[in-house]
Amino acid sequence: MALEDKIEKVASLDEKETQLDKMETKVTERTQPVEGKFETMMDKKLTDEDGALKTAASEKPNVEDIARQQSQVNAHDRAVTKGDLVTQTTEASQRIEQVKSELETPNLEIKKPVRRLMRSKLTHIAEDLQIALSKAGTEPVQAPEIAGSETVNPATKFFDHLTHAQYQLDHLGSYLQAMVDTEKDLSPANMLAIQIKVNKVQQELEFFTNLLNKSLESTKALMNVQV
Protein backbone atom coordinates (compact mmCIF):
# COMPACT_ATOMS: atom_id res chain seq x y z
CA MET A 1 0.00 0.00 0.00
CA ALA A 2 2.88 2.30 0.76
CA LEU A 3 4.17 1.82 -2.76
CA GLU A 4 0.76 2.63 -4.23
CA ASP A 5 0.60 5.78 -2.10
CA LYS A 6 3.98 6.84 -3.42
CA ILE A 7 2.86 6.19 -6.98
CA GLU A 8 -0.28 8.24 -6.41
CA LYS A 9 1.83 11.09 -4.98
CA VAL A 10 4.20 10.97 -7.93
CA ALA A 11 1.28 10.98 -10.31
CA SER A 12 -0.21 13.91 -8.46
CA LEU A 13 3.09 15.78 -8.73
CA ASP A 14 3.27 15.00 -12.43
CA GLU A 15 -0.24 16.36 -12.92
CA LYS A 16 0.68 19.54 -11.06
CA GLU A 17 3.83 19.95 -13.12
CA THR A 18 1.78 19.42 -16.28
CA GLN A 19 -0.70 22.06 -15.13
CA LEU A 20 2.15 24.45 -14.34
CA ASP A 21 3.65 23.83 -17.78
CA LYS A 22 0.31 24.59 -19.40
CA MET A 23 -0.04 27.77 -17.36
CA GLU A 24 3.47 28.87 -18.28
CA THR A 25 2.72 28.19 -21.93
CA LYS A 26 -0.42 30.31 -21.80
CA VAL A 27 1.39 33.12 -20.00
CA THR A 28 4.20 32.95 -22.53
CA GLU A 29 1.75 33.03 -25.43
CA ARG A 30 0.10 36.08 -23.93
CA THR A 31 3.22 37.99 -22.92
CA GLN A 32 5.57 37.24 -25.80
CA PRO A 33 3.64 39.02 -28.56
CA VAL A 34 2.77 42.05 -26.37
CA GLU A 35 5.86 43.94 -27.43
CA GLY A 36 5.29 43.05 -31.04
CA LYS A 37 1.62 43.89 -30.83
CA PHE A 38 2.40 47.21 -29.15
CA GLU A 39 4.91 48.11 -31.82
CA THR A 40 2.45 47.08 -34.52
CA MET A 41 -0.28 49.19 -32.94
CA MET A 42 2.04 52.18 -32.62
CA ASP A 43 3.22 51.82 -36.20
CA LYS A 44 -0.37 51.69 -37.39
CA LYS A 45 -1.27 54.74 -35.30
CA LEU A 46 1.68 56.73 -36.60
CA THR A 47 0.87 55.67 -40.15
CA ASP A 48 -2.76 56.74 -39.71
CA GLU A 49 -1.74 60.08 -38.17
CA ASP A 50 0.82 60.70 -40.89
CA GLY A 51 -1.78 59.95 -43.52
CA ALA A 52 -4.26 62.27 -41.85
CA LEU A 53 -1.69 65.08 -41.69
CA LYS A 54 -0.79 64.63 -45.34
CA THR A 55 -4.46 64.64 -46.30
CA ALA A 56 -5.12 67.79 -44.25
CA ALA A 57 -2.11 69.50 -45.79
CA SER A 58 -3.09 68.59 -49.33
CA GLU A 59 -6.75 69.52 -48.99
CA LYS A 60 -6.99 73.30 -49.18
CA PRO A 61 -10.56 74.64 -49.01
CA ASN A 62 -11.49 76.76 -52.00
CA VAL A 63 -14.11 79.44 -52.27
CA GLU A 64 -16.74 76.97 -53.47
CA ASP A 65 -16.18 74.78 -50.41
CA ILE A 66 -16.49 77.75 -48.08
CA ALA A 67 -19.65 78.88 -49.83
CA ARG A 68 -21.12 75.41 -49.52
CA GLN A 69 -20.40 75.42 -45.80
CA GLN A 70 -21.89 78.89 -45.51
CA SER A 71 -25.11 77.70 -47.11
CA GLN A 72 -25.33 74.88 -44.57
CA VAL A 73 -25.27 77.10 -41.47
CA ASN A 74 -28.31 77.02 -39.22
CA ALA A 75 -31.36 79.11 -39.85
CA HIS A 76 -30.28 81.78 -37.34
CA ASP A 77 -27.26 82.68 -39.45
CA ARG A 78 -27.95 84.69 -42.60
CA ALA A 79 -25.87 84.25 -45.75
CA VAL A 80 -24.28 87.30 -47.33
CA THR A 81 -26.38 89.20 -49.87
CA LYS A 82 -25.51 91.62 -52.66
CA GLY A 83 -26.97 94.41 -50.52
CA ASP A 84 -24.53 93.51 -47.72
CA LEU A 85 -21.65 93.74 -50.17
CA VAL A 86 -22.79 97.17 -51.37
CA THR A 87 -22.79 98.40 -47.78
CA GLN A 88 -19.38 96.89 -47.16
CA THR A 89 -17.80 98.52 -50.21
CA THR A 90 -19.33 101.88 -49.27
CA GLU A 91 -17.87 101.69 -45.76
CA ALA A 92 -14.43 100.77 -47.13
CA SER A 93 -14.55 103.68 -49.58
CA GLN A 94 -15.50 106.12 -46.83
CA ARG A 95 -12.63 104.84 -44.70
CA ILE A 96 -10.20 105.48 -47.56
CA GLU A 97 -11.49 109.06 -47.79
CA GLN A 98 -10.62 109.56 -44.11
CA VAL A 99 -7.12 108.16 -44.61
CA LYS A 100 -6.56 110.40 -47.63
CA SER A 101 -7.35 113.46 -45.55
CA GLU A 102 -4.69 112.41 -43.04
CA LEU A 103 -2.15 112.03 -45.84
CA GLU A 104 -2.64 115.72 -46.63
CA THR A 105 -1.12 116.71 -43.28
CA PRO A 106 1.49 119.45 -43.95
CA ASN A 107 5.17 118.47 -43.67
CA LEU A 108 4.30 114.80 -43.26
CA GLU A 109 7.49 112.76 -43.01
CA ILE A 110 7.39 108.99 -43.61
CA LYS A 111 10.56 107.02 -42.99
CA LYS A 112 11.81 104.59 -45.64
CA PRO A 113 11.18 101.34 -43.70
CA VAL A 114 7.62 102.51 -42.98
CA ARG A 115 7.15 103.50 -46.62
CA ARG A 116 7.98 99.99 -47.78
CA LEU A 117 5.41 98.48 -45.43
CA MET A 118 2.75 100.99 -46.44
CA ARG A 119 3.49 100.37 -50.11
CA SER A 120 3.11 96.62 -49.65
CA LYS A 121 -0.28 97.12 -47.99
CA LEU A 122 -1.46 99.22 -50.93
CA THR A 123 -0.26 96.51 -53.33
CA HIS A 124 -2.28 93.88 -51.45
CA ILE A 125 -5.34 96.14 -51.54
CA ALA A 126 -5.05 96.53 -55.32
CA GLU A 127 -4.68 92.76 -55.80
CA ASP A 128 -7.65 91.93 -53.57
CA LEU A 129 -9.85 94.47 -55.33
CA GLN A 130 -8.94 93.08 -58.73
CA ILE A 131 -10.04 89.59 -57.61
CA ALA A 132 -13.24 90.96 -56.06
CA LEU A 133 -14.12 92.76 -59.29
CA SER A 134 -13.50 89.64 -61.35
CA LYS A 135 -15.76 87.60 -59.04
CA ALA A 136 -18.49 90.18 -59.54
CA GLY A 137 -18.06 89.87 -63.30
CA THR A 138 -16.56 93.28 -64.05
CA GLU A 139 -13.13 94.85 -64.57
CA PRO A 140 -11.13 97.62 -62.85
CA VAL A 141 -11.81 101.21 -63.94
CA GLN A 142 -9.23 103.85 -64.73
CA ALA A 143 -8.70 106.36 -61.93
CA PRO A 144 -7.10 109.82 -62.30
CA GLU A 145 -3.43 109.98 -61.39
CA ILE A 146 -2.20 112.67 -59.06
CA ALA A 147 1.46 111.69 -58.73
CA GLY A 148 2.87 112.89 -62.01
CA SER A 149 6.58 112.17 -61.53
CA GLU A 150 9.06 110.19 -59.48
CA THR A 151 10.02 113.30 -57.55
CA VAL A 152 6.62 113.59 -55.90
CA ASN A 153 6.74 112.94 -52.15
CA PRO A 154 5.62 109.53 -50.80
CA ALA A 155 2.46 110.88 -49.19
CA THR A 156 1.21 112.09 -52.60
CA LYS A 157 1.98 108.73 -54.18
CA PHE A 158 0.08 106.94 -51.43
CA PHE A 159 -2.79 109.37 -51.95
CA ASP A 160 -2.76 108.38 -55.63
CA HIS A 161 -2.89 104.64 -54.85
CA LEU A 162 -5.68 105.11 -52.34
CA THR A 163 -7.67 107.15 -54.84
CA HIS A 164 -7.33 104.32 -57.34
CA ALA A 165 -8.50 101.79 -54.73
CA GLN A 166 -11.43 104.04 -53.84
CA TYR A 167 -12.47 104.19 -57.49
CA GLN A 168 -12.44 100.40 -57.67
CA LEU A 169 -14.55 100.06 -54.51
CA ASP A 170 -17.06 102.61 -55.74
CA HIS A 171 -17.23 100.85 -59.10
CA LEU A 172 -17.71 97.48 -57.39
CA GLY A 173 -20.44 98.89 -55.17
CA SER A 174 -22.26 100.49 -58.12
CA TYR A 175 -22.00 97.29 -60.14
CA LEU A 176 -23.41 95.21 -57.28
CA GLN A 177 -26.20 97.74 -56.69
CA ALA A 178 -27.14 97.47 -60.37
CA MET A 179 -27.33 93.70 -59.92
CA VAL A 180 -29.64 94.20 -56.95
CA ASP A 181 -31.87 96.59 -58.94
CA THR A 182 -32.09 94.26 -61.94
CA GLU A 183 -32.33 91.12 -59.76
CA LYS A 184 -29.34 89.68 -61.57
CA ASP A 185 -28.02 86.48 -60.00
CA LEU A 186 -24.59 86.09 -58.46
CA SER A 187 -23.48 82.71 -57.15
CA PRO A 188 -23.02 82.26 -53.37
CA ALA A 189 -19.39 81.30 -53.99
CA ASN A 190 -18.69 84.57 -55.83
CA MET A 191 -20.52 86.66 -53.26
CA LEU A 192 -18.53 85.04 -50.48
CA ALA A 193 -15.30 85.57 -52.41
CA ILE A 194 -16.13 89.27 -52.78
CA GLN A 195 -16.92 89.54 -49.08
CA ILE A 196 -13.62 87.89 -48.14
CA LYS A 197 -11.59 90.12 -50.45
CA VAL A 198 -13.26 93.34 -49.32
CA ASN A 199 -12.68 92.24 -45.72
CA LYS A 200 -9.01 91.84 -46.54
CA VAL A 201 -8.98 95.29 -48.12
CA GLN A 202 -10.37 96.73 -44.90
CA GLN A 203 -7.78 94.88 -42.82
CA GLU A 204 -4.90 96.06 -45.00
CA LEU A 205 -6.28 99.59 -44.87
CA GLU A 206 -6.31 99.53 -41.07
CA PHE A 207 -2.72 98.31 -41.04
CA PHE A 208 -1.80 101.12 -43.44
CA THR A 209 -3.61 103.61 -41.18
CA ASN A 210 -1.69 102.42 -38.10
CA LEU A 211 1.60 102.97 -39.91
CA LEU A 212 0.44 106.38 -41.07
CA ASN A 213 -0.57 107.37 -37.54
CA LYS A 214 2.93 106.57 -36.30
CA SER A 215 4.37 108.89 -38.94
CA LEU A 216 1.85 111.58 -38.03
CA GLU A 217 2.85 111.35 -34.37
CA SER A 218 6.52 111.71 -35.30
CA THR A 219 5.77 114.70 -37.52
CA LYS A 220 3.76 116.45 -34.82
CA ALA A 221 6.45 115.76 -32.24
CA LEU A 222 9.11 117.21 -34.55
CA MET A 223 7.00 120.31 -35.24
CA ASN A 224 6.49 120.87 -31.51
CA VAL A 225 10.22 120.65 -30.93
CA GLN A 226 10.86 123.18 -33.70
CA VAL A 227 8.30 125.56 -32.25
Short description:
The protein is an all-alpha fold. Helices cover 79% and strands 0% of the residues.
Span between termini: 130 Å
Helix content: over 70%
The biggest beta sheet is recorded as: none
Global shape: flat
Oligomer: single chain
Structural class comes to mainly alpha
Which residues sit in consecutive blocks of at least 5 with pLDDT less than 50? 27-35, 52-61
Mean pLDDT: 76
| Secondary structure tally: strands | 0
The share of residues in extended strands comes to under 5%
Q: Care to describe what's here?
A:
With 227 residues, this protein is mostly helical. It folds into two domains: 1-60; 79-226, no CATH class. 79% of the residues lie in helices and 0% in strands. It contains six helices and no strands. Helix 3 (82-103) runs parallel beside helix 6 (188-226). The longest helix is centred in the first third of the chain and has 57 residues, at 2-58. Mean pLDDT is 76; it is low at 27-35 and 52-61.
